[in-house]
């Protein structure tokens, strides 16, 4: 066996092991969703699919307003992702390519917010939402998350190296203003970074539990993660129902992730060819 073939074989084996490790939790989730709670706790654990999936799904739909919560989650996730992509890329483009008074100080303050735990902002943020009458409204989930420090930092780092200054100078000579330069010059170049940020923001917003639990006071009008928590009983949990509900919530997320990852890889490949 040649060294090249040995290297390829080793790499293939490592990739296969990694794929199994990554995919097994999803397989185990599907197995638990198709069995009863009693089957889940058998020893040794049952690793084959059961016949109770549709029974579990029906019970989930009877206990919670799954589709209403799903619609709320889709609205919040899509709106938040669109706003984050716009505001974060706009701020990052400004930080990366334009000099203005206090730029370094503002960016330092932005980076300092990374060390502040999200939980510390829950009480003042709730007070603000209560003062403007947004408690229990989806706007309380969308507007506070419309921009974030991580997205600005990520986009700024990418824009600083990916956008040539010569293009900006050429656009300025042609009479392009700030927003036209941002939209026609920066945005096409930033697509790979935007694709990653979009996937990250959508997944994070979809899985958010703490803030919706605090601000969405009506259990019948909430997001999917909070609604799924209602499947847990006061003295115990029917894990087969919880897993069935989780499986139903994960499937749309996987579709969005696979779709976004494909465009992310395509944009990176396109940029590599152009470079």
Strand content: under 5%
Class from helix and strand fractions: mainly alpha
Radius of gyration, Cα only, in angstroms?
A: 23 Å
| Rounded mean pLDDT score | 87
Number of helices: 14
N-to-C series of helices and strands: HHHHHHHHHHHHHH
Q: How much helix, percentage-wise, in residues?
A: over 70%
Global geometry: globular
CATH topology of the domain at 64-230: MetI-like fold
- CATH superfamily heading of the domain at 64-230: MetI-like
Pfam families: BPD_transp_1 (PF00528)
Organism: Kibdelosporangium aridum
Family: Belongs to the binding-protein-dependent transport system permease family.
Transmembrane segments: 12-29, 70-93, 105-126, 138-155, 189-206, 239-259
Description:
With 275 residues, the protein is mostly helical. It has a domain at 64-230: MetI-like (MetI-like fold, Orthogonal Bundle), CATH 1.10.3720. The chain contains 14 helices and no strands. It has helices spanning 3-33, 37-40, 53-63, 66-97, 103-112, 122-131, 139-142, 149-162, 165-173, 178-189, 191-207, 210-215, 224-229, 239-274. The radius of gyration is 23 Å and the shape is globular. The protein starts with a helix and ends with a helix. The mean pLDDT is 87.
